[in-house]
Amino acid sequence: MAQRARSRLSREESQERTRTALLDSAREQIATHGVAAASVRSISEAAGFSQGAFYSNFASKEAMLLEVMAEHMRDEAARFGAAVEKALLEAGPNGAGLAAVEALRGYLHTLNTDGNWPMLTIELQLYANRSESFAAQFNTSKTLFQSEIAKTLTHLFTRLKLRPALDPLKLAIGFIALSNGYAVQGNTAAPEGVGEIMFTFLDALIRSSQRTEG
């Protein structure tokens, strides 16, 4: 029985390694060639597996993209949270809001350096608009991402003793939409230009906020 248990665990570990390799390959293919060119075949071959191995782990390319996107959203939410915490530390305990936003400038300049991710978000949203079953899965990840960004913005404004002009969730949705929207503009908005626009957006939010008591 112990041998069968070890064999089963070995199969599970092998499948998990295969799944991880396919996801890593998908991220690389998307970053290098874009969403449309990242086919099941190219993803599988780059990972060293057959298309059969792909379909043993994912029901479809869309299902795999959902998982890749969900992981990317989690990473971006964590990155934003870490950047805000670092900016608050740099601004100091008595740091003004504008100083904190200035400390975020470096992070904001890293947004949209790879336009494939915003484009993937937009493509998945368009697909979700046409498929109720897909929308249910995509919207779960999207809503969680928006919520995490809103929590970080709430933390930022609370630490700065400011009351934002809009609900943090609405601000988060606007922040995400503004960042993703520039992907549609193609080369008309260089990454550094997008960073400055996002900086101006946050700067305006801080300037329009009211001080809280205490």
Automatic annotation (TrEMBL):
Residues 1-24 are annotated as: Disordered. The keyword Transcription regulation applies. It comes from the Bacteria. Keywords: DNA-binding, Transcription, Transcription regulation. It holds the Pfam family TetR_N. PROSITE patterns: HTH_TETR_2. One of its GO terms (molecular function) is DNA-binding transcription factor activity. Residues 39-58 bind DNA. Residues 16-76 form the HTH tetR-type domain. InterPro entries: Homeodomain-like_sf, HTH-type_TetR-like_transc_reg, HTH_TetR, Tet_transcr_reg_TetR-rel_C_sf. The keyword Transcription applies. Residues 9-19 have a biased composition (Basic and acidic residues). This is Transcriptional regulator, TetR family. It comes from Stigmatella erecta.
